[in-house]
Design the sequence.
Protein backbone atom coordinates (compact mmCIF):
# COMPACT_ATOMS: atom_id res chain seq x y z
CA UNK A 1 0.00 0.00 0.00
CA UNK A 2 1.17 3.56 -0.71
CA UNK A 3 2.77 4.80 2.49
CA UNK A 4 0.98 8.14 2.12
CA UNK A 5 -2.21 6.33 3.15
CA UNK A 6 -0.96 5.45 6.62
CA UNK A 7 -3.11 7.00 9.31
CA UNK A 8 -6.00 7.71 6.90
CA UNK A 9 -9.58 6.58 7.59
CA UNK A 10 -9.34 2.87 6.75
CA UNK A 11 -12.53 2.50 4.71
CA UNK A 12 -11.80 5.10 2.05
CA UNK A 13 -8.03 4.64 2.26
CA UNK A 14 -8.54 1.02 1.26
CA UNK A 15 -10.72 2.09 -1.65
CA UNK A 16 -8.04 4.51 -2.83
CA UNK A 17 -5.40 1.79 -2.59
CA UNK A 18 -7.64 -0.50 -4.62
CA UNK A 19 -8.03 2.14 -7.28
CA UNK A 20 -4.27 2.56 -7.52
CA UNK A 21 -3.77 -1.18 -7.76
CA UNK A 22 -6.53 -1.80 -10.30
CA UNK A 23 -6.00 1.43 -12.24
CA UNK A 24 -9.67 1.82 -13.22
CA UNK A 25 -13.06 1.66 -11.55
CA UNK A 26 -15.65 -0.92 -12.47
CA UNK A 27 -17.82 0.37 -15.30
CA UNK A 28 -21.03 -0.33 -13.38
CA UNK A 29 -19.81 1.91 -10.58
CA UNK A 30 -19.14 4.66 -13.08
CA UNK A 31 -22.68 4.25 -14.43
CA UNK A 32 -24.00 4.69 -10.91
CA UNK A 33 -21.98 7.87 -10.49
CA UNK A 34 -22.99 9.23 -13.89
CA UNK A 35 -26.69 8.70 -13.16
CA UNK A 36 -26.49 10.66 -9.92
CA UNK A 37 -26.47 7.96 -7.24
CA UNK A 38 -23.29 9.40 -5.76
CA UNK A 39 -23.67 9.23 -2.03
CA UNK A 40 -23.71 5.45 -1.75
CA UNK A 41 -22.36 4.24 -5.07
CA UNK A 42 -19.36 2.54 -3.55
CA UNK A 43 -21.44 0.72 -0.94
CA UNK A 44 -24.00 -0.38 -3.50
CA UNK A 45 -21.50 -1.54 -6.08
CA UNK A 46 -19.13 -3.14 -3.60
CA UNK A 47 -15.91 -1.91 -2.03
CA UNK A 48 -13.89 -4.07 -4.39
CA UNK A 49 -13.56 -2.11 -7.62
CA UNK A 50 -13.65 -5.36 -9.59
CA UNK A 51 -16.86 -6.71 -8.04
CA UNK A 52 -20.08 -4.97 -9.15
CA UNK A 53 -23.28 -5.45 -7.16
CA UNK A 54 -26.22 -7.12 -8.89
CA UNK A 55 -28.48 -4.11 -8.43
CA UNK A 56 -26.12 -1.92 -10.52
CA UNK A 57 -25.95 -4.09 -13.60
CA UNK A 58 -28.20 -1.96 -15.79
CA UNK A 59 -26.77 1.35 -14.61
CA UNK A 60 -30.29 2.75 -14.31
CA UNK A 61 -31.22 1.93 -10.72
CA UNK A 62 -28.34 2.17 -8.26
CA UNK A 63 -29.62 1.57 -4.75
CA UNK A 64 -27.93 1.85 -1.38
CA UNK A 65 -27.40 -1.15 0.85
CA UNK A 66 -30.64 -0.39 2.69
CA UNK A 67 -32.69 -0.32 -0.52
CA UNK A 68 -33.09 3.46 -0.75
CA UNK A 69 -32.19 5.46 -3.79
CA UNK A 70 -28.79 7.17 -3.63
CA UNK A 71 -28.40 10.93 -3.94
CA UNK A 72 -26.72 14.02 -2.57
CA UNK A 73 -26.78 13.78 1.19
CA UNK A 74 -29.30 12.13 3.48
CA UNK A 75 -31.87 14.89 3.29
CA UNK A 76 -31.88 15.15 -0.49
CA UNK A 77 -30.68 18.76 -0.57
CA UNK A 78 -27.53 19.94 -2.32
CA UNK A 79 -25.24 19.85 0.71
CA UNK A 80 -22.72 17.31 -0.54
CA UNK A 81 -22.36 13.59 -0.92
CA UNK A 82 -21.59 11.33 2.00
CA UNK A 83 -23.36 9.73 4.92
CA UNK A 84 -21.61 11.28 7.89
CA UNK A 85 -22.28 14.97 7.31
CA UNK A 86 -19.61 17.65 7.61
CA UNK A 87 -16.26 16.58 9.03
CA UNK A 88 -13.67 19.02 10.31
CA UNK A 89 -10.16 19.30 8.94
CA UNK A 90 -8.34 19.84 5.68
CA UNK A 91 -8.69 18.00 2.41
CA UNK A 92 -6.38 14.94 2.72
CA UNK A 93 -2.99 15.32 1.10
CA UNK A 94 -3.47 12.65 -1.57
CA UNK A 95 -6.68 14.40 -2.65
CA UNK A 96 -5.03 17.81 -2.52
CA UNK A 97 -2.25 16.54 -4.78
CA UNK A 98 -4.74 15.44 -7.45
CA UNK A 99 -6.66 18.72 -7.22
CA UNK A 100 -3.49 20.81 -7.41
CA UNK A 101 -2.27 18.97 -10.49
CA UNK A 102 -5.59 19.05 -12.35
CA UNK A 103 -8.10 21.53 -10.94
CA UNK A 104 -7.08 24.37 -8.64
CA UNK A 105 -5.06 26.23 -11.24
CA UNK A 106 -8.50 27.65 -12.17
CA UNK A 107 -10.77 26.41 -9.36
CA UNK A 108 -8.76 28.22 -6.69
CA UNK A 109 -10.13 30.57 -4.05
CA UNK A 110 -10.88 33.05 -5.53
CA UNK A 111 -11.57 31.35 -8.87
CA UNK A 112 -9.60 32.17 -12.02
CA UNK A 113 -9.91 32.05 -15.82
CA UNK A 114 -13.68 31.66 -16.09
CA UNK A 115 -14.14 28.96 -13.45
CA UNK A 116 -17.32 29.35 -11.40
CA UNK A 117 -16.64 27.28 -8.27
CA UNK A 118 -13.54 26.91 -6.05
CA UNK A 119 -12.33 23.46 -5.01
CA UNK A 120 -9.92 24.53 -2.28
CA UNK A 121 -11.69 23.31 0.87
CA UNK A 122 -14.09 20.61 2.01
CA UNK A 123 -16.83 23.22 2.38
CA UNK A 124 -16.40 24.20 -1.26
CA UNK A 125 -17.40 20.67 -2.25
CA UNK A 126 -20.49 20.62 0.00
CA UNK A 127 -22.27 23.77 -1.18
CA UNK A 128 -24.77 23.88 -4.07
CA UNK A 129 -23.19 24.23 -7.50
CA UNK A 130 -23.40 27.69 -9.03
CA UNK A 131 -24.41 26.33 -12.42
CA UNK A 132 -26.95 23.84 -10.99
CA UNK A 133 -28.05 24.57 -7.39
CA UNK A 134 -30.00 21.30 -7.25
CA UNK A 135 -26.74 19.36 -6.86
CA UNK A 136 -23.66 19.87 -4.74
CA UNK A 137 -20.29 20.87 -6.13
CA UNK A 138 -19.07 17.39 -5.15
CA UNK A 139 -21.76 15.67 -7.22
CA UNK A 140 -21.12 17.96 -10.19
CA UNK A 141 -17.37 17.30 -9.90
CA UNK A 142 -17.97 13.56 -10.17
CA UNK A 143 -20.33 13.94 -13.12
CA UNK A 144 -17.92 16.20 -15.01
CA UNK A 145 -14.99 13.83 -14.42
CA UNK A 146 -16.74 10.93 -16.14
CA UNK A 147 -18.89 12.86 -18.61
CA UNK A 148 -18.11 13.43 -22.27
CA UNK A 149 -19.93 16.77 -22.61
CA UNK A 150 -17.35 19.39 -21.62
CA UNK A 151 -15.42 17.10 -19.26
CA UNK A 152 -13.14 18.31 -16.50
CA UNK A 153 -10.21 18.58 -16.75
CA UNK A 154 -11.06 19.92 -20.19
CA UNK A 155 -8.32 17.94 -21.92
CA UNK A 156 -9.44 14.69 -20.21
CA UNK A 157 -5.93 14.31 -18.80
CA UNK A 158 -7.08 12.98 -15.42
CA UNK A 159 -5.78 9.44 -14.98
CA UNK A 160 -8.03 6.60 -13.85
CA UNK A 161 -6.09 6.35 -10.60
CA UNK A 162 -6.38 10.06 -9.80
CA UNK A 163 -10.07 10.09 -10.70
CA UNK A 164 -10.59 7.14 -8.39
CA UNK A 165 -8.95 9.00 -5.50
CA UNK A 166 -11.46 11.86 -5.83
CA UNK A 167 -14.39 9.45 -6.26
CA UNK A 168 -13.47 7.39 -3.20
CA UNK A 169 -12.99 10.44 -1.00
CA UNK A 170 -16.33 12.01 -1.98
CA UNK A 171 -18.20 8.70 -1.68
CA UNK A 172 -16.75 8.27 1.82
CA UNK A 173 -18.29 11.57 2.92
CA UNK A 174 -15.29 13.84 2.22
CA UNK A 175 -13.49 13.19 5.54
CA UNK A 176 -11.01 15.80 6.68
CA UNK A 177 -7.69 15.55 8.42
CA UNK A 178 -5.00 17.78 9.88
CA UNK A 179 -3.08 17.76 6.64
CA UNK A 180 -0.69 20.58 7.44
CA UNK A 181 1.66 21.31 4.55
CA UNK A 182 1.24 18.54 1.99
CA UNK A 183 4.27 17.29 0.12
CA UNK A 184 3.60 17.48 -3.60
CA UNK A 185 1.22 20.45 -3.30
CA UNK A 186 3.23 23.46 -4.36
CA UNK A 187 2.61 26.93 -3.01
CA UNK A 188 1.39 29.04 -5.91
CA UNK A 189 3.69 31.92 -5.02
CA UNK A 190 4.29 34.52 -7.70
CA UNK A 191 3.10 33.78 -11.19
CA UNK A 192 6.05 32.56 -13.34
CA UNK A 193 4.80 34.64 -16.26
CA UNK A 194 3.98 38.22 -17.05
CA UNK A 195 5.79 41.30 -18.39
CA UNK A 196 7.91 41.74 -15.26
CA UNK A 197 9.52 38.33 -15.80
CA UNK A 198 10.58 38.94 -19.42
CA UNK A 199 14.32 39.29 -20.11
CA UNK A 200 13.58 42.47 -22.08
CA UNK A 201 11.61 45.69 -21.66
CA UNK A 202 8.28 45.43 -23.57
CA UNK A 203 7.85 48.20 -26.12
CA UNK A 204 4.32 47.33 -27.30
CA UNK A 205 1.08 46.71 -25.40
CA UNK A 206 -2.19 45.49 -26.91
CA UNK A 207 -4.92 45.54 -24.27
CA UNK A 208 -8.68 45.07 -24.01
CA UNK A 209 -10.66 48.31 -23.79
CA UNK A 210 -14.05 49.86 -24.39
CA UNK A 211 -14.58 51.45 -27.78
CA UNK A 212 -12.96 54.87 -28.10
CA UNK A 213 -11.41 54.86 -24.62
CA UNK A 214 -8.43 53.51 -22.71
CA UNK A 215 -10.72 52.15 -20.01
CA UNK A 216 -11.03 48.44 -19.43
CA UNK A 217 -13.64 46.40 -21.27
CA UNK A 218 -16.92 45.85 -19.41
CA UNK A 219 -17.34 42.06 -19.51
CA UNK A 220 -21.04 41.10 -19.67
CA UNK A 221 -22.52 38.34 -17.52
CA UNK A 222 -22.33 35.65 -20.21
CA UNK A 223 -20.22 32.60 -20.92
CA UNK A 224 -18.04 31.99 -23.97
CA UNK A 225 -17.87 35.54 -25.32
CA UNK A 226 -15.25 36.08 -28.03
CA UNK A 227 -14.41 39.79 -28.11
CA UNK A 228 -12.01 41.36 -30.60
CA UNK A 229 -9.97 44.53 -30.21
CA UNK A 230 -8.44 45.77 -33.49
CA UNK A 231 -5.35 48.00 -33.62
CA UNK A 232 -3.54 49.64 -36.52
CA UNK A 233 -0.16 47.94 -36.77
CA UNK A 234 2.58 50.14 -35.26
CA UNK A 235 5.30 48.04 -36.90
CA UNK A 236 7.52 48.55 -39.92
CA UNK A 237 8.30 45.93 -42.54
CA UNK A 238 11.46 45.05 -40.59
CA UNK A 239 9.96 44.69 -37.12
CA UNK A 240 10.18 41.24 -35.53
CA UNK A 241 8.83 39.96 -32.23
CA UNK A 242 11.46 38.50 -29.93
CA UNK A 243 9.46 37.85 -26.72
CA UNK A 244 5.98 38.29 -25.34
CA UNK A 245 4.07 37.83 -22.11
CA UNK A 246 0.41 37.80 -21.10
CA UNK A 247 -1.08 40.73 -19.25
CA UNK A 248 -3.93 39.24 -17.24
CA UNK A 249 -6.09 41.83 -15.52
CA UNK A 250 -9.38 40.33 -14.31
CA UNK A 251 -8.31 36.71 -14.08
CA UNK A 252 -11.78 35.68 -12.90
CA UNK A 253 -13.19 35.98 -16.43
CA UNK A 254 -10.30 35.64 -18.91
CA UNK A 255 -10.22 32.16 -20.46
CA UNK A 256 -7.56 32.64 -23.16
CA UNK A 257 -6.49 35.10 -25.84
CA UNK A 258 -5.10 35.07 -29.36
CA UNK A 259 -3.26 37.72 -31.33
CA UNK A 260 -4.34 37.59 -34.97
CA UNK A 261 -3.22 39.26 -38.18
CA UNK A 262 -5.71 41.50 -40.00
CA UNK A 263 -5.61 43.58 -43.17
CA UNK A 264 -7.22 46.74 -44.52
CA UNK A 265 -10.63 45.01 -44.63
CA UNK A 266 -10.60 44.17 -40.91
CA UNK A 267 -13.27 45.86 -38.84
CA UNK A 268 -11.91 48.56 -36.54
CA UNK A 269 -12.53 49.14 -32.86
CA UNK A 270 -14.00 46.69 -30.36
CA UNK A 271 -16.52 44.09 -31.47
CA UNK A 272 -17.78 40.54 -30.79
CA UNK A 273 -16.16 38.06 -33.15
CA UNK A 274 -16.20 34.38 -34.06
CA UNK A 275 -13.75 31.91 -32.57
CA UNK A 276 -11.43 32.28 -35.57
CA UNK A 277 -11.56 33.61 -39.10
CA UNK A 278 -9.58 32.25 -42.02
CA UNK A 279 -8.50 35.72 -43.09
CA UNK A 280 -6.94 36.42 -39.66
CA UNK A 281 -4.13 33.91 -39.10
CA UNK A 282 -2.68 33.50 -35.61
CA UNK A 283 0.42 35.39 -34.53
CA UNK A 284 0.60 34.17 -30.94
CA UNK A 285 -1.64 33.13 -28.06
CA UNK A 286 -2.00 32.42 -24.36
CA UNK A 287 -4.03 30.13 -22.13
CA UNK A 288 -3.77 29.37 -18.39
CA UNK A 289 -0.64 27.39 -17.65
CA UNK A 290 1.33 28.55 -20.68
CA UNK A 291 4.48 30.57 -19.95
CA UNK A 292 6.01 33.66 -21.46
CA UNK A 293 7.41 32.98 -24.91
CA UNK A 294 10.97 33.91 -25.77
CA UNK A 295 12.21 33.41 -29.31
CA UNK A 296 15.57 31.72 -29.84
CA UNK A 297 18.41 34.14 -30.52
CA UNK A 298 18.57 33.25 -34.20
CA UNK A 299 14.87 33.87 -34.98
CA UNK A 300 12.35 36.70 -34.85
CA UNK A 301 8.60 36.49 -35.38
CA UNK A 302 7.07 38.14 -38.44
CA UNK A 303 4.60 40.87 -37.50
CA UNK A 304 1.94 42.81 -39.45
CA UNK A 305 3.42 45.81 -41.21
CA UNK A 306 2.15 49.22 -42.33
CA UNK A 307 -1.48 49.18 -43.48
CA UNK A 308 -2.24 45.93 -41.63
CA UNK A 309 -4.00 45.40 -38.34
CA UNK A 310 -3.42 43.47 -35.15
CA UNK A 311 -6.45 41.81 -33.59
CA UNK A 312 -6.49 40.87 -29.93
CA UNK A 313 -9.19 38.24 -29.49
CA UNK A 314 -10.11 37.38 -25.90
CA UNK A 315 -12.35 34.51 -24.88
CA UNK A 316 -14.26 35.62 -21.79
CA UNK A 317 -16.27 33.38 -19.49
CA UNK A 318 -18.36 35.24 -16.94
CA UNK A 319 -20.88 32.53 -16.24
CA UNK A 320 -20.29 33.17 -12.52
CA UNK A 321 -22.07 36.50 -13.01
CA UNK A 322 -19.41 38.93 -11.74
CA UNK A 323 -21.08 42.33 -12.05
CA UNK A 324 -17.83 44.25 -11.57
CA UNK A 325 -15.80 42.51 -14.31
CA UNK A 326 -13.79 45.23 -16.08
CA UNK A 327 -10.83 43.87 -17.97
CA UNK A 328 -7.65 45.25 -19.53
CA UNK A 329 -5.94 41.97 -20.36
CA UNK A 330 -3.77 41.44 -23.41
CA UNK A 331 -0.15 41.05 -24.41
CA UNK A 332 3.14 42.85 -23.78
CA UNK A 333 5.69 42.42 -26.55
CA UNK A 334 9.40 43.01 -27.05
CA UNK A 335 10.38 43.77 -30.63
CA UNK A 336 13.48 44.55 -32.66
CA UNK A 337 14.05 46.64 -35.79
CA UNK A 338 17.18 44.64 -36.60
CA UNK A 339 15.94 41.47 -38.27
CA UNK A 340 17.44 38.27 -36.93
CA UNK A 341 18.98 35.53 -39.06
CA UNK A 342 15.69 33.67 -39.52
CA UNK A 343 12.10 34.88 -39.77
CA UNK A 344 9.49 32.80 -37.94
CA UNK A 345 5.86 32.66 -39.01
CA UNK A 346 2.71 30.58 -39.04
CA UNK A 347 2.52 27.36 -41.07
CA UNK A 348 -1.02 26.05 -41.62
CA UNK A 349 -1.48 22.28 -41.41
CA UNK A 350 -4.73 20.38 -41.89
CA UNK A 351 -7.49 19.80 -44.40
CA UNK A 352 -10.62 21.27 -45.96
CA UNK A 353 -11.84 17.79 -46.93
CA UNK A 354 -14.55 17.65 -44.28
CA UNK A 355 -17.80 15.84 -45.07
CA UNK A 356 -19.36 14.44 -41.90
CA UNK A 357 -22.69 12.71 -42.55
CA UNK A 358 -25.73 13.48 -40.40
CA UNK A 359 -25.51 11.41 -37.23
CA UNK A 360 -22.20 9.95 -38.37
CA UNK A 361 -18.47 10.23 -37.80
CA UNK A 362 -15.43 10.99 -39.91
CA UNK A 363 -11.65 10.85 -39.55
CA UNK A 364 -9.85 13.39 -41.75
CA UNK A 365 -6.15 12.76 -42.37
CA UNK A 366 -3.84 15.22 -44.10
CA UNK A 367 -0.12 14.73 -44.76
CA UNK A 368 2.18 17.73 -45.20
CA UNK A 369 5.08 16.33 -47.24
CA UNK A 370 8.20 18.39 -46.59
CA UNK A 371 10.30 16.73 -49.32
CA UNK A 372 10.24 20.01 -51.27
CA UNK A 373 12.13 21.81 -48.53
CA UNK A 374 15.80 22.48 -49.16
CA UNK A 375 16.71 23.01 -45.48
CA UNK A 376 15.55 21.89 -42.03
CA UNK A 377 12.92 23.96 -40.21
CA UNK A 378 12.30 24.35 -36.49
CA UNK A 379 8.80 24.16 -34.98
CA UNK A 380 8.25 26.30 -31.88
CA UNK A 381 4.59 25.64 -31.09
CA UNK A 382 1.39 23.98 -32.31
CA UNK A 383 -2.16 25.30 -31.94
CA UNK A 384 -4.86 22.80 -33.02
CA UNK A 385 -8.26 24.12 -34.04
CA UNK A 386 -11.65 22.55 -34.79
CA UNK A 387 -15.26 23.52 -34.03
CA UNK A 388 -17.93 22.01 -31.78
CA UNK A 389 -18.36 18.64 -33.53
CA UNK A 390 -14.68 17.79 -33.30
CA UNK A 391 -13.87 14.87 -31.02
CA UNK A 392 -10.08 14.54 -31.34
CA UNK A 393 -7.16 16.14 -33.16
CA UNK A 394 -3.46 15.37 -33.41
CA UNK A 395 -0.36 16.19 -35.42
CA UNK A 396 2.32 13.55 -35.72
CA UNK A 397 5.82 14.01 -37.09
CA UNK A 398 6.76 10.96 -39.17
CA UNK A 399 10.46 10.82 -39.92
CA UNK A 400 11.67 10.10 -43.43
CA UNK A 401 12.89 6.63 -44.34
CA UNK A 402 11.11 4.95 -41.43
CA UNK A 403 13.24 6.65 -38.78
CA UNK A 404 10.43 6.79 -36.22
CA UNK A 405 7.79 9.34 -35.25
CA UNK A 406 6.76 11.66 -32.45
CA UNK A 407 3.51 13.32 -31.47
CA UNK A 408 3.64 17.12 -31.68
CA UNK A 409 0.09 17.81 -30.50
CA UNK A 410 -2.40 15.25 -29.25
CA UNK A 411 -5.88 16.20 -28.02
CA UNK A 412 -7.79 12.91 -27.57
CA UNK A 413 -10.89 14.64 -26.16
CA UNK A 414 -11.40 17.89 -28.07
CA UNK A 415 -13.15 20.72 -26.25
CA UNK A 416 -14.11 23.70 -28.40
CA UNK A 417 -14.22 25.89 -25.29
CA UNK A 418 -10.71 25.00 -24.15
CA UNK A 419 -8.39 25.62 -27.08
CA UNK A 420 -4.75 25.96 -26.07
CA UNK A 421 -1.41 25.89 -27.81
CA UNK A 422 1.46 23.50 -27.19
CA UNK A 423 5.00 24.97 -26.97
CA UNK A 424 7.89 22.84 -28.21
CA UNK A 425 10.83 23.52 -25.94
CA UNK A 426 13.36 22.88 -27.31
CA UNK A 427 12.17 23.41 -30.87
CA UNK A 428 11.39 20.31 -32.92
CA UNK A 429 13.65 20.02 -35.98
CA UNK A 430 11.83 18.95 -39.16
CA UNK A 431 14.10 17.52 -41.83
CA UNK A 432 13.28 17.62 -45.57
CA UNK A 433 11.24 14.52 -46.38
CA UNK A 434 9.54 14.27 -42.99
CA UNK A 435 5.74 14.06 -42.94
CA UNK A 436 3.52 16.22 -40.72
CA UNK A 437 0.31 14.22 -40.38
CA UNK A 438 -2.72 16.02 -38.97
CA UNK A 439 -5.75 13.88 -38.04
CA UNK A 440 -9.13 15.36 -37.15
CA UNK A 441 -12.03 13.24 -35.87
CA UNK A 442 -15.67 14.31 -35.84
CA UNK A 443 -18.91 13.10 -34.27
CA UNK A 444 -21.87 14.73 -35.99
CA UNK A 445 -24.80 14.80 -33.59
CA UNK A 446 -26.87 17.00 -35.92
CA UNK A 447 -29.40 15.97 -38.52
CA UNK A 448 -27.51 17.40 -41.47
CA UNK A 449 -24.20 16.90 -43.25
CA UNK A 450 -21.43 19.16 -41.96
CA UNK A 451 -18.63 20.47 -44.17
CA UNK A 452 -15.75 22.87 -43.95
CA UNK A 453 -16.66 26.48 -43.17
CA UNK A 454 -15.98 29.48 -40.96
CA UNK A 455 -19.21 29.35 -38.94
CA UNK A 456 -19.33 27.60 -35.58
CA UNK A 457 -21.93 25.22 -37.07
CA UNK A 458 -19.44 24.31 -39.81
CA UNK A 459 -16.18 22.52 -39.14
CA UNK A 460 -12.44 23.09 -39.47
CA UNK A 461 -9.31 20.95 -39.28
CA UNK A 462 -6.19 23.05 -38.70
CA UNK A 463 -2.99 23.03 -36.71
CA UNK A 464 -1.40 26.47 -36.72
CA UNK A 465 2.33 26.01 -36.14
CA UNK A 466 5.01 28.65 -35.65
CA UNK A 467 8.16 27.59 -37.49
CA UNK A 468 11.43 29.10 -38.64
CA UNK A 469 12.69 29.84 -41.16
CA UNK A 470 9.14 30.35 -42.45
CA UNK A 471 10.64 31.34 -45.80
CA UNK A 472 11.58 27.69 -46.32
CA UNK A 473 7.91 27.08 -47.12
CA UNK A 474 7.84 29.70 -49.85
CA UNK A 475 7.99 26.84 -52.34
CA UNK A 476 5.25 25.22 -54.48
CA UNK A 477 2.45 24.01 -52.24
CA UNK A 478 1.86 20.21 -52.40
CA UNK A 479 -1.92 20.67 -52.43
CA UNK A 480 -2.74 24.11 -53.78
CA UNK A 481 -1.53 27.18 -55.66
CA UNK A 482 2.20 27.89 -55.63
CA UNK A 483 1.80 31.17 -53.75
CA UNK A 484 0.17 29.36 -50.82
CA UNK A 485 3.27 27.47 -49.74
CA UNK A 486 2.72 28.38 -46.09
CA UNK A 487 -0.66 26.63 -46.25
CA UNK A 488 0.37 22.97 -46.23
CA UNK A 489 -3.32 22.09 -46.30
CA UNK A 490 -5.33 19.53 -48.26
CA UNK A 491 -7.60 21.85 -50.23
CA UNK A 492 -9.29 19.11 -52.22
CA UNK A 493 -10.87 19.87 -55.57
CA UNK A 494 -12.79 23.03 -56.42
CA UNK A 495 -12.60 24.45 -52.90
CA UNK A 496 -11.80 28.17 -52.91
CA UNK A 497 -9.46 29.56 -50.31
CA UNK A 498 -8.63 33.18 -49.52
Sequence:
Amino acid sequence: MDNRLSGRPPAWAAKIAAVRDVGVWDTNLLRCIATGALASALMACGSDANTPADNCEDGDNCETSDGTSGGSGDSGDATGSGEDGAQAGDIPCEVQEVLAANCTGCHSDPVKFGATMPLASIEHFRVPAVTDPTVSVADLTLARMVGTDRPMPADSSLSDGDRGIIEAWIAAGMPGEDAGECEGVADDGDDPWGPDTLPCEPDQLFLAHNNGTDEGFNVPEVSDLYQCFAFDSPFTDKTQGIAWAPVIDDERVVHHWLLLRGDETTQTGTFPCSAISLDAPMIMGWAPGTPNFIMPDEAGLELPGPGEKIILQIHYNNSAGHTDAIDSSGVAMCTTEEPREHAAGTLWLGSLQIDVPAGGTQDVVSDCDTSRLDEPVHMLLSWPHMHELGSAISTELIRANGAGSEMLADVPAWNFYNQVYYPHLPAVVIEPGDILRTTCSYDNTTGQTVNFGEGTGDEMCFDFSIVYPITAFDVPNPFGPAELGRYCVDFGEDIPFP
